[in-house]
Design goal:
- By secondary structure, the chain is an all-alpha fold.
- 69% of the residues lie in helices and 0% in strands.
- The chain is elongated, with a radius of gyration of 16 Å.
């Protein structure tokens, strides 16, 4: 009942998050300001998704995974791609990536290179299965 009314607002915020993933200024405070809501309201909106910070991190990791799986990005350093999406610390990024996907950023890239960027590589399949599971 109450959650139903929050979903459209959360979807708006998620679109905003997706549009600003590369910004270091993408924070809970920035969302509060952009949508004129209190921190309490923001946290309540994102509680079903594990929190606003977790949602931002998950969306950034997903976007980085897509970039690493793209043959066009093969010449770019992993750390540079990660930094473009708000991960200034390569060690933290690598740990978060592995925790989310079950393999390292380098393995994701190697899987994409070996498959020629095809969506049927083991890494794409694993990513797809994890996305289906939640």
């Amino acid at each position: 009942p109450r959650e139903h009314g929050r979903a459209p607002r959360r979807r708006q915020m998620i679109r905003y998050i997706d549009a600003h993933l590369g910004s270091a200024r993408l924070t809970a405070d920035a969302l509060c300001k952009a949508f004129q809501v209190s921190r309490t309201t923001l946290y309540r909106l994102f509680e079903p998704l594990g929190g606003v910070a977790q949602e931002i991190k998950a969306r950034r990791l997903k976007r980085i995974h897509q970039a690493l799986s793209s043959p066009e990005m093969a010449i770019r350093q992993v750390a540079v791609i990660a930094e473009e999406f708000g991960f200034a610390d390569p060690t933290y990024f690598s740990r978060a990536f592995r925790q989310r996907f079950g393999y390292t950023p380098s393995q994701a890239r190697a899987g994409a290179v070996q498959s020629g960027g095809r969506q049927d590589s083991p890494y794409h399949y694993d990513h797809w299965m994890r996305a289906l599971q939640g």
